């Protein structure tokens, strides 16, 4: 593994698990993108792996909803029943990747300089393969956890209308019902120039919502400009949105994250973090920190214009102007609350604000009033297991709770009442995040560490206490 191994300076080299690598390769080479791929094919392949690994046929199911190409896998490793089951979720689908954009074929597992290249190597076929390999390893050992461990590998996290986690919860709740959920799609080890620096534990996340702004007008001949031009109304409303950020707000998770960041930042930045953690927060410090997109997205709900469409001819007054505003909503707030906030900010009755239902892509007059879940309570047993295993693999690397400012499938498990925690076991260099991008890659040594991490974590989490 040589100099590229992320933590070779810290721990004994982790021997590769050939079966885990083989499962990883197989998954990468099954195209699961929405356009031409099939998550059903990947689910079937993983089902076969589990059966070959000793799982009983009754404990491994491929479940297909309305779209035959967007299937899901659910498997169960039986425990002693001392506690309610735990659930691991992972999405099988990947973001589109075009051969002509990439240096290598995105659907060929290509090893080079210690890395493996391929679509899904970071997001998140690595995590899927690690989960499958870990369960097989536990099964072969005859290990009996103190609770059932359920694995759900699912469709349409990245797009599409057949989200597998949502569908399983609605149609097969009994198969995936658990006390809590683990999602390797977020969190995990951040590295800096090959050295692990933090172990990020995603403990809450923002809620995704799109809003459609529409202004209509009878229009007319452009040689006779009239007041109430639809484009001016829309542009003014968007201008007001840019100048009126949502209020600053912290929760226990973002507080913990800021406390950690305050310890590693220096100078004015460190002072500002201290001043925003103070109650009441210093408004000047909030404003300065908000200049940085990462801090800004942590400190508040954000809404930003992402698309614009207006007019129907160069020589006509516009009859219609629309824009999409994409929001990432803080826990504890609902899309309808944000829609009302937007209406207040736009301060223009000519601008209607509809909510886009992501399941159908259709605008709705009102938005859901369900709130993004408040951060789940920290679980002492989970923190203890993480500390033990992370401490052994990446000594001295702190566990930092964070709020996912994007969104993942944990939104569904959290809404279903299962506290959900996100962490992968693979280390990715902060400057080498290629998820959704060109030439996505992962260090093979990092994958091997991830296999060892999840195997050890599952045992620490479910061992007889
Ligand atoms: Zn993902």
CATH top level class name of the largest domain: Alpha Beta
Indicate the radius of gyration in whole angstroms.
24 Å
Please give the alpha-carbon distance between the first and last residues: 36 Å
What's the number of helices? 14
Strand content: 15-25%
Can you list the ligands bound to this structure?
Answer: zinc ion
- Mean pLDDT score: 93
* Morphology call: globular
CATH architecture of the largest domain: 3-Layer(aba) Sandwich
Return the domain count.
2
Characterize the main sheet.
Answer: 6 strands, mixed
Beta strands, count: 20
What is the CATH superfamily classification of the largest domain?
Answer: Zn peptidases
- Looking at CATH, which topology of the largest domain would you report? Aminopeptidase
The structural class is alpha/beta
The residue fraction in helices comes out at 25-40%
Low-confidence runs: 1-10
Lateral strand order in the biggest sheet? 1-2-6-3-7-18
């Amino acid at each position: 593994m040589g100099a590229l191994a992320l933590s070779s300076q810290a721990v004994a080299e982790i021997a590769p698990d050939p079966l885990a690598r083989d499962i990883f390769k197989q998954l990468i080479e099954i195209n699961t993108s929405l356009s031409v791929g099939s998550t059903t094919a990947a689910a079937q392949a993983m089902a076969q792996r589990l059966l070959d690994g000793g799982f009983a046929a009754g404990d491994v199911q491929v479940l297909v909803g309305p779209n035959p190409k967007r299937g899901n896998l659910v498997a169960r490793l039986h425990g002693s029943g001392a506690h309610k089951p735990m659930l691991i979720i992972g999405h099988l689908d990947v973001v589109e990747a075009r051969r002509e954009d990439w240096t290598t074929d995105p659907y060929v597992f290509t090893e080079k300089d210690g890395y493996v290249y391929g679509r899904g190597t970071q997001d998140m076929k690595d995590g899927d393969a690690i989960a499958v390999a870990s369960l097989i390893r536990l099964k072969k050992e005859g290990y009996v956890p103190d609770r059932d461990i359920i694995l759900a590998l699912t469709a349409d996290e990245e797009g599409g209308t057949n989200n597998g986690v949502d569908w399983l919860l609605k149609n097969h709740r009994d198969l995936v019902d658990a006390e809590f959920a683990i999602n390797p799609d977020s969190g995990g080890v951040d590295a800096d120039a090959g050295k692990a620096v933090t172990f990020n534990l995603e403990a809450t996340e923002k809620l995704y919502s799109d809003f459609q702004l529409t202004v209509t007008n009878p229009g007319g001949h452009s040689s006779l400009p009239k007041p109430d031009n639809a484009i001016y109304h829309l542009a003014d409303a968007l201008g007001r949105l840019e100048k009126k950020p949502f209020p600053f707000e912290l929760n226990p998770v973002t507080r913990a994250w800021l406390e950690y960041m305050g310890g590693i930042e220096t100078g004015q930045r460190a002072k500002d973090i201290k001043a925003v953690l103070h109650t009441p927060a210093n408004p000047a410090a909030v404003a300065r920190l908000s200049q940085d997109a990462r801090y800004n997205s942590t400190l508040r709900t954000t809404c930003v214009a992402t698309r614009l469409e207006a007019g129907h001819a160069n020589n006509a007054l516009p009859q219609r102007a629309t824009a999409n505003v994409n929001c990432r909503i803080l826990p504890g707030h609902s899309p309808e609350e944000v829609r009302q906030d937007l209406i207040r900010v736009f301060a223009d009755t000519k601008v209607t604000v509809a909510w886009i239902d992501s399941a159908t892509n259709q605008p709705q007059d009102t938005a859901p009033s369900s709130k993004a879940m408040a951060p789940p309570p920290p679980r002492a047993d989970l923190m203890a297991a993480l500390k033990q295993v992370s401490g052994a693999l990446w000594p001295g690397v702190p566990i930092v709770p964070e709020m996912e400012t994007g969104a993942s499938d944990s939104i569904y498990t959290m809404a279903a009442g299962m506290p959900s925690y996100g962490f992968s076991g693979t280390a990715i260099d902060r400057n080498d995040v290629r998820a959704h991008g060109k030439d996505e890659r992962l260090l093979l040594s990092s994958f091997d560490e991830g296999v060892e991490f999840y195997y050890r974590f599952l045992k620490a989490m479910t061992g007889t206490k």
